[in-house]
Amino acid sequence: MRIVLDESKCSSLGMCESVAPDFFEVRDDGALELLNPTPPGDQRALMEEAVAACPTSALSIEE
Amino acid sequence: MPEAPFVVVGASLAGLRAVESARKAGYSGRLLLVGAEEHLPYDRPPLSKAFLDPGDDPAMPHHRTDDELRALDVELRLGVPATALDTDAREIVLGGEEQLRYERLVIATGARARQLPGEQLDGVHTLRTVEDARSIRGALDAGRRMVVVGGGFIGSEVASAARKRNVDVTILEAAPLPLVRAVGEQMAAACADLHARNGTELRCGVSVTGLEGEGRVEGVALSDGSVLPADLVVVGIGADPVTDWLIASGLHVEDGVVCDETLRAGPEVYAAGDVARWHNALFGRTMRLEHWTSAAEQGAAAARNALAPARATPYSAVPYFWSDWYRDKLQMVGITAADEVTVIGDLDDARWLALYRQDDLLVGTLGLNMPGKIMKYRAMIGWRTAWQDALAFAGR
Asked: In principle, which of B31, B50, B117, B331 could form an S-S bond with B374, CB 3.0–4.6 Å?
């Protein structure tokens, strides 16, 4: 599983970080950092929650 | 006779998340999504932001395509408002005539924009629906002189859009300061100052006594006796939960559908989103939030709990909203009822943070252009972090 970020959609709202702070972090300049773009399989539910939490649909999961 | 469906009333974000969550939870029976608007669920925050930007007409900000909803096997009843609910008979009425039995119900009818009293003139708009946003776009393209009634977030965002087109704007606020309910008394002035920085006039302590014009608005009459010329008026004086259809339902309605901490409003009835007033255990109080994140999360939680009431889990959350003004981003997490507010940084700068203390706890944080910090404070509020620890984290 790979987390894909569409930077053109991301507006630094930080909901992904709120759901999964070990995997997402908004930097001070507003850029989103993927702390681990290929999370282990046992994190799937959390990743799906983080993707769904994004108000601008900037995140997706690729297999 | 077919089985009674799981019905979700309200086809915006909370309603959409409710049907998606029901399927994700394994519910395979009939699922019906009812919406008063004729559109597939669409996203509202952009309507007062990017949707109003100058340029080509923006696309409809749909959350899901028709195909995506079909894949969920959701029956759509769009363009038909629910007009009554009978919780004893487990029945709703659609469009005043069609009776529909339900097995379980999620109420997500949202809120509607408050209007000014009196006759409606052309050129006077509220902003809630995509039609409203399209009308305001068109009016901004043609407009020269806009008056915004209400200094809240919608009004401030529309004023920002107008300034991008060099339309003159005056914001009117009846209270001595705008945004007091949203950000608290201590920080309202700092937020209001963003308007002055961007060339928008903000007049506080004046109310609207009437609108002038024959058929079409030409001016706004104020309580101080003056008249402001205007060819476009946007009214942003808040929204009321859509509960008029629930009068005879037997549910407890009081500024929203009153729910327990699991979002349960009555037998087999749950509520979510702007319409829901629920007990947020994290803060030990009831709240009704008109925020994107709570609508999404409550929609999902309400459907899960409706499907398994015996195993219902409380929904508690640190409130979060954001607002885009000019080139600035305001973000607020937590609550504003505070004994003390400490500002980290200088309010004259382009970025600052404000920390809200209640007793010895951090309960809220407001940031201007601080996207990298705000979620760290949201987490700390959720953990019930001691005030001294929050100050230490902030470098105090």
From this structure: B331
Closest in A21, A26, A55 to B379, CB measured:
A21
Instruction: Name every chain B residue with its beta carbon within 8 A of the beta carbon of A54.
Output: none
pLDDT of residue B2: 67
Tell me whether strands B340-344 and B352-358 are parallel, antiparallel or unpaired.
antiparallel
Interface A-B, measured as beta-carbon pairs within 8 A, has a size of 47
Ranges in chain B, pLDDT < 50: none
Q: Enumerate chain B positions whose Cβ falls within 8 A of a Cβ in A.
A: 17, 43, 45, 292-293, 296-297, 300, 320, 322, 329, 331, 370-375, 378-379
User: Tens-of-pLDDT digits for all 63 residues of chain A?
Assistant: 999 999 999 999 999 999 999 999 999 999 999 999 999 999 999 999 999 999 999 999 998
Report DSSP state, residue B386.
B
| Closest Cβ opposite residue B375 in set A14, A28, A29 | A14
What are the b/e assignments for A39-61, b being 16+ CB within 10 Å?
beeebeeebeebbbbbbbebbee
pLDDT tens sequence across B237-254: 999 999 999 999 999 999
Q: What is the pLDDT of residue B7?
A: 98
Residue of B nearest to A57 (CA): B63
Segments in chain B forming alpha helices (H) = 13-24, 66-71, 130-142, 153-164, 180-183, 185-197, 292-307, 371-382, 387-393
Sign of CA dihedral B244, B133, B51, B372: negative
Asked if B195 and B177 touch (Cβ cutoff 8 Å), the reply is: no
Contact B10, B273 (CB under 8 A): yes
* HEC sequence for B225-252: CCEEECCEEEECCCEEECCHHHCCCCCC
Q: Looking at residue B119, what is its pLDDT?
A: 79
Q: Is residue A16 within a helix (H) or strand (E), and if so which, with residue range?
A: helix A15-19
CA distance B108 to chain A (A): 18
Asked if A21's CB is within 8 angstroms of B371's CB, the reply is no
